[in-house]
Design goal:
single chain, about 500 residues, alpha/beta, 15-stranded parallel β-sheet, three-stranded parallel β-sheet, 23 strands, about 20% strand, disordered N terminus
């Protein structure tokens, strides 16, 4: 229901006094506040409030954020899609013209529009001091949009949903987007030369979001290179499976020394060139292998070809840059395998306080022992799901029974024989498990954790909705605990 409909609605039988009070409450709000409320709505909805009363007609010029989305209220009475697009474009023309003398803070376009029209809207918005521009449409940026690159007020830019970048200016001694702090590129069509030129010409960037693989038929737009002295937040999502050879050949080069937050999700590359991330606080890694590792489940460490990185890629330098300073690390289930199969030296996580990772019934925990043994200051261990694929290398953090060998899985034979577990030396105080279902394997894993982690003070368990809570709780609460301070909470 639109805002106009909500505001006009009156329940049958409502007393006159209540109606008067309601009208007074609405009319008593300052115009500036009403303008902020309307700015948070799609512009089509905000404009529809002008039918309420004469006073509401004067509020549209106070709207400083324009959001044009042709999927909302797109003239449903018209069957012809092209005609509907024309009607909506006409509406945008009229709205932009009406606000041509008003400040415009944010301008967002989502839909199919003619290039000259979109360029005209952008030009008008920039003349009104535009600071945020979001083009979520198949708009083509070429030489006709040269003015677009020289805005001195633009701080945040989003280009996505098939936007095509055919031109990036290069003028000696000039910087494009001199005020730009945040850049988001999601499934855009851009050649590698233009991508590198765009990144190199925006030296003041503090946030960069790159996303490939949301359904557009484009090859990866990211060249593997990102640099920025002021960059604090970097998010990269690049999953285009049919271009696997691109990842195998690509060298990832990141020169972002002041990065505070790093979120990287991609297929493993052959090589990473990384600067030291001395300021890094939090990192999220989703590292996907090019092929399955199931055929290596039965290998011993003594004869597994660990140096053959031609098979899976190499993340050694990526972890080496992140490990020494990161305080919070989040890992996908794929990353646990990648860390084991694609790292040729041990990385210390001396400052790591919180480690969280996801489990998947088709993925192993091969990388978990390495992470725990090299995180001497770990305080919080967060695990999403306990069920994972049984391998010969789940390590001494896991009591899984490997059916093919008929002995408990371990990182190596000598550790299994001596029953040594790295968990006994871990300083972990808080263990948090989500998606707990109470199966036999999960209960045995909980028994293993509670019986090995001697510093535990709090265990938080999130239970699956379909699980029998009462029986599940009784079984967990009856498990022996090595730590006398350990309390268990179900959340």
């Amino acid at each position: 229901m639109g805002l106009a409909s909500i505001l006009k609605r009156r329940k049958k039988g409502q007393s006159e006094s209540v109606s008067i009070v309601s009208r007074d409450l609405i009319s008593s709000l300052p115009d500036e506040i009403l303008g902020k409320i309307l700015s948070s709505l799609p512009t089509k909805v905000a404009a529809s409030t002008s039918v309420l009363s004469k006073s509401w007609r004067n509020l549209l010029p106070l709207v400083d954020s324009l959001n044009f989305d042709d999927s909302i209220f797109l003239y449903p009475e018209r069957d012809d899609e092209e005609a509907r697009c024309v009607l909506f474009s006409n509406f945008v023309d009229k709205t932009v013209a009406l606000l041509s003398t008003c400040p415009i803070k944010s301008f967002s376009v989502n839909g199919r529009y003619e290039k000259p029209r979109v360029n005209g809207w952008i030009r008008t918005a920039m003349q009104r001091g535009l600071s945020e521009l979001h083009l979520r449409c198949r708009h083509q940026i070429d030489r006709d949009a040269d003015f677009f690159f020289w805005s001195k007020t633009l701080v945040k830019l989003t280009l996505s949903n098939g936007c095509r970048i055919k031109y990036v200016p290069k003028k000696e001694g000039f910087v494009i987007f001199p005020s730009l702090k945040s850049l988001s590129l999601g499934d855009v069509a851009i050649c590698h030369a233009h991508f590198d030129k765009l990144m190199a010409s925006c030296p003041g960037l503090e946030e960069v979001f790159i996303r490939n693989g949301d359904g557009q038929p484009f090859p990866p737009s990211w060249t593997g290179h990102v640099s920025g002295d002021f960059m604090k937040r970097l998010v990269i999502y690049s999953h285009v499976p049919k271009y696997t050879n691109f990842y195998k050949k690509e060298e990832v080069w990141l020169d972002t020394v002041n990065l505070v937050y790093f979120d990287y999700s991609s297929y493993v590359s052959n090589f990473y060139v990384m600067c030291d991330m001395d300021s890094l606080v939090e990192a999220r890694l989703d590292l996907r292998l090019w092929e399955s590792t199931i055929q290596y489940d039965d290998y011993d460490d003594d004869y597994f070809p660990m140096n053959d990185f031609r098979t899976f890629g190499n993340v050694s330098h990526l972890l080496g840059a992140i490990g020494p300073n990161v305080k919070t690390l989040h890992l996908s289930s794929d990353s646990l395998e990648a860390i084991y199969f694609c790292c040729n030296f041990y990385v210390m996580f001396n400052n790591l306080v919180t480690l969280s990772f996801e489990s998947d019934k088709d993925k192993g925990w091969q990388g978990v022992p390495h992470l725990l043994k090299n995180a001497p200051n770990l305080q919080n261990l967060v695990i999403k799901g306990l069920v994972h694929r049984v391998t010969g290398r789940c390590g001494n953090v896991c009591p899984c029974f490997h059916l093919k060998r008929n002995f408990k899985a371990c990182l190596c034979r000598s550790c299994e024989l001596s029953r040594v577990s790295c968990l006994t030396t871990m300083p972990v105080k808080v263990l948090e498990i989500s998606g707990y279902g109470g199966t036999r394997r999960e209960i045995e894993q909980m028994r293993h954790f509670l019986g090995k982690l001697k510093c535990l003070e709090l265990v938080k368990i999130g239970v699956q909705q379909e699980a029998d809570n009462n029986d599940l709780r009784l079984k967990v609460m009856s498990l022996p605990r090595l730590s006398s301070k350990c309390n268990i909470q179900f959340i």
